[in-house]
Amino acid sequence: MSSPSITRCPVLDPSGRAVHAEAAAMRAEAPAVLVELPGPVLAWAVTRHSVIQALTNDPRVSRDIRRHWEGLAEMPEGWALAPLALQQSFFNYYGDEHRKSRRRVAPTFSPRQVERMRPQVQATADRLVEALAALPPGATADIRHDLALPLTITVICDLFGVPDHLRRKVGTGIDAVLDSSLDQEHALAANNELYARLGELLQYKRENPASDLTSDLLLPSEPGTESMSDDELLGTLFLMIGAGYETTVNLITSGVQALLNHPENLTRIQEGTIGWQDVVEETLRIEGPVMHIPLRCALEDIDLGEGVVIRKGDAITLGFAAAGRDPEVHPQCPEGFDPTRASKDHLAFGHGPHFCLGAHLARLEGEIALSTLFRHLPELALAHPGQEPARLTSFIINGFAGLEVIPHPV
Q1: pTM value?
Q2: Which positions carry the signal peptide feature in this UniProt record (predicted)?
């Protein structure tokens, strides 16, 4: 499970409080650093842009730890990383199995299909921003909970036909499963609760099929073939609803925080110097919504140089949110928010065969949410200027737990 010559290694902070400082320290140390994850599990943490990019395309690295990771046999019940690491969906499949499963949902998230969703996303954003605009002078609101969360959960749940009575339960269930600070007992309970709600969704769609992705997934992919197993259906729903909801919530919340801390960029937008796409891409670069996605596994020894060799069977975690701050890629103020920079290269949506299917939709939602908010509320201000909001208690995802603002300052 780990290199026997290494007896001590840093523990990855499950609180997420120092996520960027932690990643920067590892990036400066080596192309990969052996760390301890909850479990405990030893894994090679990779935070350099070039190394992450190389490993995502490397056939010697597998996402399917059920098949390829020897350490799995030692994991206790209630392992905190199990919901993601053991999920049965194309998220973790390898090779042909991954390609076949991914094709089931890929067409829905093509650029053309996503663009057709624009009116629906815009209407939802208008409704939510109008509610913020109706608040009295001096009143506060939380951007994450009053705009970003309800917008993204509405869009993804509409796509998958999630009925109203299950939407909040599924959303809070995903939040709980991604909280890496939970102990094993509570992590197991959160996992069981989420899968129970997703099971309710499957049962509801079997009884009430409609024109939505969940109903489509219940059918065989081709005539004469078998339908997905329940385990794969549940894993796919967790992946698609969770990725379509949680990550975009973080993108929108981080974007608002960055713009209010750097209001000169709002002037640049008005002048036409930059566009909303520039803001979205720079937000993805500096605050990628996903940090460490556990886990991958080395199928062979992989020599990364600088004395670092990942051995066959070792676990690997890639710090996607760290890649955008790599000074090798962004030598000019890599930790500063600057939508005017020419290159905004990042790996916020991953890279290679597992590149995020929802990237086009996330960008669309981010652009619409930010443009609608600042168009209708030009005086919007932070409720606590100069203070960084509390971060999500997770090393898996990256973002703020909330962002209090004042729509109409007194």
Answers
A1: 0.94
A2: none
